[in-house]
Amino acid sequence: MTDASGTSSIVIALDGPAASGKGTLARLISDHYGFAHLDTGTLYRGVAWVVMNEGGDPADPETAAAAARDYAIEKIAGADIRTKEVGAAASVVAANKAVRAALLDFQRRFAQKPPKGAPGAVLDGRDIGTVVCPDATVKFFVTASPKIRARRRWLELEPSRPGLEESEIYQDLLERDARDAARDDAPMAAADDAELLDTTHLSIDAAFAAARRVIDGVFRRCG
Ligand code: CDP
Fold first, then answer.
1. CA distance 26 to 37
2. Which residue's alpha carbon is at the smallest distance from atom 6 of ligand 1?
3. pLDDT at site 9
4. From atom 17 of ligand 1, which residue's Cα is the shortest distance away?
5. Inter-residue contact 186 to 126 (CB < 8 Å)
6. Using CA positions, which residue lies closest to atom 4 of ligand 1?
7. What percent of the residues of the chain are helix, what percent strand, and what percent coil, each to the nearest 5?
8. What is the distance in A from the centroid of ligand 1 to the CA of 220?
């Protein structure tokens, strides 16, 4: 069956603010159900990295739009796109309407026809349940308190960046969330029919178990 966005496979959408745990959950869910996984943040990070690597300004609308239109995964081979600088630049290019338009088709095609014949797709980002796949089978909006998110991201980044302060990460996340939520085009938002999952006090195992309960419940109801 094909829906309004052209989706014909099972789609699990996970949206939420930076470092809320949606990426980890998306990986666990995709492994468990044998679905393909697309971390849509890598697309925006990738575009931002290409712009920066070529000495361009992520805030320049034409430069960012051209990088998004020409974007290919090979362009970021070996690049470290997980840094906080690339994250900040990603949220700048992500506010650009032409950038989002250029990346939309790829995301929808992935959801509609997951690679390697997988029976479903898990996409995580900011606008999956609202814009990319509004008819997704199951939608989650994953949150956690800013302090906890900063701590998690610091634990992830500090080993490759000794001396990185947790307070810097905290500020960075708040700024990025504010920009992502305030932009005009496809702002970060929970879809009306999204399941809210607050992971502040949950271990990864507990968050994954909670997500599985929701997904299995939907699968049972849908036969
Ligand atoms: O991993 P983290 O939660 O820090 O961020 P990410 O998912 O890698 O996304 C990086 C940036 O890309 C976000 O701050 C957003 O500005 C942008 N993004 C977006 O606008 N829409 C998406 N579907 C995914 C990411």
1. 7
2. 41
3. 87
4. 91
5. yes
6. 18
7. 55, 10, 35
8. 31
Q: What is the DSSP letter of 130?
A: I
| Amino acid 1: pLDDT | 37
- Complete DSSP assignment for 46-59: HHHHHHHHTT--TT
Query: Under 8 Å CB-to-CB from 41, ≥6 apart: which residues?
Result: 23, 90, 124, 125, 126
Name residues whose C-beta falls within 8 Å of residue 60's C-beta, 6 or more positions apart in sequence.
none
CA of 146 to the centre of ligand 1 (A): 16
* Pairing mode of beta strands 36-39, 120-125: parallel
Token code pair at residue 207: 């968050």
Residue numbers in the chain where pLDDT is lower than 50: 1-2, 4-5, 7
Enter the pTM of the model: 0.95
Mutation choice for ligand 1 from 11, 27, 44, CB with most ligand atoms inside 8 A: 44
Beta 138-143 vs 10-15: how paired, if at all?
A: parallel
Q: For residue 154, what are its two tokens? A: 């610091």
| Closest ligand 1 atom to Cα of 128 | 23
Which pLDDT score is estimated for 222? 85
Summarised one tens digit per residue, pLDDT across range 104-147 is: 999 999 999 999 999 999 999 999 999 999 999 999 999 999 99
Name which residue sits closest to atom 10 of ligand 1, judged by CA: 41
